Amino acid sequence: MYAAYIGKKLIELVNKREGKNRSTQEFYDEVYIPLFFLNERYLQHVNNSKFDQVYKQKRKTPLTSVVLASALTDQHSKIQTDAPDGSFFLGGAAAEISAGTSGQVTDILPPITTDEVYASWIGAAMGVGVSGGLNLLIDSDEVLLALYDGWFRYREYLTQTPNLKPHQVNTWNGYWVTNFFDDLYDDNYPFANKEPEVKTDSKTGIASVETTPWIKVIFALAEKMPKQIINTYVYSLSQRNTTIGFISLELPAVLFLNELYKKISKEESIITNTESLATLYDTALGFQKACELGKIGIPALEPKQLREHIPSFHREGKPFKTPKNQNDSILLTYNFYQTWIIAMLNNQQLIDLTKKFASALNDFSNQKDRSKTIKSRSVDELLKASNRRSFIEQLAKLVTENESQESTFYQTVDELANIVITIPLTDFPLFMALLKLKYALLQPKK
Question: Are 172 and 107 in the same domain?
Answer without folding.
Answer: no
